[in-house]
Predict the structure.
Amino acid sequence: MEYYALEMTLNDWQILFADWGEQKFRASQVCQWIYSKKEFNYHLMSNLSKDLREKLNDNILMSLPIMLRQQVSKDGTRKYLWSLNDGARVESVLLNHGGHKTACISSQAGCPLGCTFCETGANGFTRNLTRGEILGQFLMMEKINGADINNIVFMGMGEPLLNEDNVFSAIRSLNDKNMRNLGARHITVSTSGIVPGIEDLADFEIPIRLSLSLHAPNDELRSRLMPVNKQYPLQSLVNALRRYRERTGERITIEYALIDRVNDSPEYAYETAALLDGLEPYINLIPFNPIPSRPELKRSDSSRIKAFCNALTELKIEFELRKERGTDIMAACGQLASTRV
Ligand code: SAH
Ligand code: SF4
């Protein structure tokens, strides 16, 4: 049996070390090297015996995503293209706001959900990422940049709640005090509205943040933009959000991309408010980012954006108009597609 370092939970390391006749705390030491110090070379793990280092080197593969390309946007956003073990490719983005770094990570190679406004969706689906491939993107970005990243958002390629086991396992290791020790409030999962996954998140032991990609407040329009809405229509989705809110007490962020004359008239703001009544949502308005596969979709112009914002203000709904980031290198929301090299 082959072992891959990043595929192993702390518990897996402890079981293995017990098997090898090593003391339990050695497992935490190895995890500290990997997750905290970003030391991926066993030979340099200086507080382990030479024998143990060699045994690790011979038995546990330190498989990491290979960086094929790094692009830097004029606003400082960085985009990485990785090659995984089987040659599958994914992208991740590193955002920098005033010294605070946020990693936007992929959970799948491609995405099976095919939202009409999203380049990732237009490029089809290859496979789920393993927990190690998810963690690898984050750790490699920390290693390359020589700095800790403050936040992680599952807003790269793919639908995280269609790859729940691996995403949840990666989150447990990011949060674990003996591993990366990243606080729950610094971890966000974004979903297109996978109801069973939202229900599982409501019961998840780590109180991470939830973001919902809404983009349309009625089933007719939403099903056209996001085919997943046919499987989980708005009523079931809103019920799941309410349950999540009741069980966790957390506010939910709602993502809403403003697409010119598709979903950006003020009536939709009113409809959104009615749909989410009582949920106290926080709305993130994203000016639509153009994508090559759908040239007919345009970003709303500033007067339409303003009208939408005014309607939300009038409705006393808290919102933020998200600043454009990384569009010049196709690193913005919905623009990730691993096939472009
Ligand atoms: N699959 C998950 C995670 C990806 S997050 C989800 O959809 O939530 C990527 C975010 O960018 C989502 O909110 C998505 O709806 C949004 N998005 C996709 N294409 C976009 C585009 N062209 N412009 C702006 N936002 C877009
Ligand atoms: Fe998939 Fe999210 Fe893109 Fe939709 S918006 S296709 S769910 S990645």
